[in-house]
């Protein structure tokens, strides 16, 4: 039975302590296999004993739980005591509707976690999405998360000890509402180097998205193409596509980077962001997200030198 108490929620505002949801002994590691689909990390996950659902690993999911795209999953998962909620997201429309329970049991890799929020979308925007949903804070909020794109394996570290391994570059990150922000430099137009603040959105299959509007710090290149950029939880996103001459993160410089230019008020709900680093960029590195210590570790992998589509 659905309890019709309507509550407005956001996928990026629930932040919980690093200690909750983890019962294993210290210094253990846990392996979680994944696959890449449309430049996104897909984590097979069971919810309340369901079949394995293909969930996108999302750094924008800042609460303990999962967001599922397809309303028919209400009939396949125990949703006793569900309430109706509204979920804002990218797009120009109103917040979407969903149902939510707080008694989810998630299983991925060799990890099982109880008492998780499970939100099932009723929005027409999400029903045709090819994957089943998104997952995020369950991993990033409780572990140092190592993603090896070469081997397609995620390793969850209860505590991160790299010893004398100097092959990683260490980049400071700042969590804002549970989302990792960092600083970098972009040359959208050759010779115009601009320092910008980015956040990482692994659910984005793009390499680089720059936010346009009254606060943009960069000049637009001449050769841009009007494009439909995608669909968010609150509707369609339209903008432009083109190339940036260079992007610099720490000591790494990537050239001729495929770039989407999207209106800030439609694409992003994050204050203070100039742009977004998506998984087509991040997958060129093996990476460790260490939220507890405010660090991101990068190491170029076999995809590093592949040209941007």
What does this protein look like?
This protein has helices spanning 137-140, 264-267, 279-282; strands at residues 3-8, 29-33, 35-37, 40-47, 53-57, 65-68, 83-87, 96-108, 111-121, 133-135, 144-148, 153-157, 169-172, 174-176, 179-187, 193-201, 208-212, 225-232, 235-249, 252-263, 275-278, 285-290, 295-300. Strand 15 (179-187) and strand 16 form a beta hairpin. 4% of the residues lie in helices and 50% in strands. The model is unreliable at 1-10 and 12-25 (pLDDT under 50). The chain is built from three helices and 23 strands. It is globular and about 60 Å long. It has two domains: 3-157, Cathepsin D, subunit A, domain 1; 169-300, Cathepsin D, subunit A, domain 1, CATH 2.40.70. The chain has a six-stranded mixed β-barrel. It has a six-stranded antiparallel β-sheet with strand order 2-12-11-22-23-13, with no helix packed on it. Strands 15-16-21-17-20-19 form a six-stranded mixed beta barrel. By secondary structure, the chain is mostly beta strands.
Q: Quaternary state, please?
A: single chain
State the helical fraction: under 10%
How far apart are the first and last residues' alpha carbons, in Å?
47 Å
CATH class of the largest domain: Mainly Beta
Q: Taking strands numbered 1, 2, ... along the chain, how are they ordered across the largest sheet? A: 4-5-10-6-9-8
Regions with pLDDT < 50 over 5+ consecutive residues?
Answer: 1-10, 12-25
- Beta-strand portion reads over 45%
Say which CATH homologous superfamily of the largest domain is assigned: Acid Proteases
**Count of spatially separate domains:** 2
Q: What's the rounded overall pLDDT mean?
A: 87
Instruction: Give a quick account of the main beta sheet: strands, pairing sense, barrel closure.
Output: 6 strands, mixed, barrel
By DSSP (H or I, 4+ residues per run), the number of helices equals 3
Along the chain, the helix and strand elements come as EEEEEEEEEEHEEEEEEEEEEHEHEE
Overall strand count:
23
- Derived from helix and strand composition plus strand pairing, the structural class reads mainly beta
| Gyration radius, rounded | 19 Å
CATH fold call of the largest domain: Cathepsin D, subunit A, domain 1
CATH architecture of the largest domain: Beta Barrel
Q: What overall form do the CA principal axes indicate?
A: globular
């Amino acid at each position: 039975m659905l309890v019709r108490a309507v509550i407005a929620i956001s996928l990026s505002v629930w932040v919980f302590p690093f200690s909750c949801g983890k019962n294993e002994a210290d210094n253990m590691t846990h392996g979680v296999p994944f696959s890449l689909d449309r430049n996104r990390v897909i984590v097979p996950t069971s919810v309340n004993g369901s079949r394995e659902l293909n969930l996108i690993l999302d750094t924008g999911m800042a609460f303990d739980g999962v967001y599922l795209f397809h309303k028919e999953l209400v009939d396949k998962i125990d949703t006793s005591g569900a309430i109706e909620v509204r979920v804002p997201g990218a797009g120009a429309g109103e917040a979407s509707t969903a149902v939510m329970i707080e008694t989810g049991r998630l299983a991925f890799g060799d990890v099982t976690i109880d008492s998780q929020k499970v939100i099932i979308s009723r929005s027409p925007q999400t029903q045709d999405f090819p994957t089943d949903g998104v997952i995020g804070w369950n991993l990033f909020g409780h572990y140092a998360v190592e993603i090896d794109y070469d081997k397609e394996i995620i390793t969850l570290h209860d505590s991160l000890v790299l010893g004398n391994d100097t092959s990683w570059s260490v980049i400071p990150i700042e969590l804002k509402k549970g989302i990792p922000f960092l600083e970098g430099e972009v040359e959208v137009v050759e010779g115009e180097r601009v320092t910008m603040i980015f956040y990482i959105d692994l659910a984005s299959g793009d390499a680089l998205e720059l936010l346009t509007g009254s606060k943009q710090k960069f000049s637009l290149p001449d050769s841009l193409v009007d494009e439909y950029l995608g669909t968010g939880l609150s509707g369609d996103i339209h903008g432009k596509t083109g190339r940036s001459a260079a992007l610099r993160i720490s000591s790494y410089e990537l050239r001729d980077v495929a770039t989407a230019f999207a209106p800030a008020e439609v694409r992003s709900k994050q204050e203070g962001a100039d742009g977004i680093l998506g998984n087509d960029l991040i997958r060129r590195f093996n990476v460790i997200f260490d939220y507890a210590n405010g660090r991101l570790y990068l190491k170029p992998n076999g995809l590093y030198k592949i040209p941007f589509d």
